[in-house]
Amino acid sequence: MPLDEYRKKRDFTRSPEPTGETVPETDAAKPRFFCVQKHLASHLHYDLRLEHDGVLLSWAVPKGPSLDSRDKRLAMQTEDHPIEYGQFEGVIPDGYGAGVVMLWDIGTWTPQSPDIDASLRKGDFKFTLDGYKLKGSWVLVRTKGYGDSSKPSWLLIKHKDEWAGPIDITEFAPHSVKTPGADFADILASDTPDLWKNNPPAKTGDTGKLFQRIIATAIELRETNHSDPPTRLMSAEAAARKLDALEAPARTKAATKRATKTSSTTKTPATKTKTTKKTGASR
Ligand code: MN
């Protein structure tokens, strides 16, 4: 069974990840699905997944994709994932892959040669992406240097085309496409913010620091909002409303009070920027 390895690694009574029981029919004429999930686990990485033959072929890309055609990004092939995994965004509380999964890009893909399996066997797999963030022509080239035959290593490279350029797309567009604007802290805040307060999936190094920051932000978001998700998006709207109130000509005591509150709310994006920078630095 194609998803045996996927299922063996996970305890679905403890993880919200899909079991992959329903395998949809693949229609050759239908555009194929692709996604990239930004996954903060023991290490931050980006999971590239391409629909093929009823599953998602998967590669873990530690540094994430690059639009710069001079970059060769290590992409470690991982177990095939169920199709419905491509919609997953959330918190894996413990076990395999424990951490936060963000749906970072989503769209369709097209192989550049019709025989996908032959391209994969050859280790030279060219394809075109049409996502929100990733577009145009790409190639995965299998390397001899790392990994074994069951988990080969590849290099993910952007071909030179109109969608290539010297932009660090992971820094430029760091947030979720499923919950627009959401970062890891928002996703954790919408789940169980204090889940890892004393025992995060990574405790040391840059990833440990990143977890600490995200957990603290998530707890703060939940406490300041006293509400269910969306958290930060809602607080941005609230901040805008408060700013509108400030522009009213008659400034009452209440408005001054709101102003104080607003200044603390508007600090939130700064925290977010820091978190994002940290994300970049930890790679
Ligand atoms: Mn992963």
Question: Can you walk me through this structure?
Answer:
The chain has helices at 4-8, 116-122, 169-172, 184-189, 205-225, 232-247, 253-265, 268-282, and strands spanning 32-40, 44-52, 55-61, 73-82, 90-92, 99-111, 124-131, 135-147, 152-158. 31% of the residues are buried. With 283 residues, it is α+β, with helices and mostly antiparallel strands. It has an 8-stranded antiparallel beta barrel with strand order 1-2-3-4-9-8-7-6. The protein starts with a helix and ends with a helix. It is globular and about 50 Å long. Helix 5 runs antiparallel to helix 8 and helix 6 (232-247) packs antiparallel against helix 7. It folds into 2 domains: 1-178, no CATH class; 181-246, no CATH class. Bound molecules: manganese (II) ion. Manganese (II) ion binds next to strand 2.
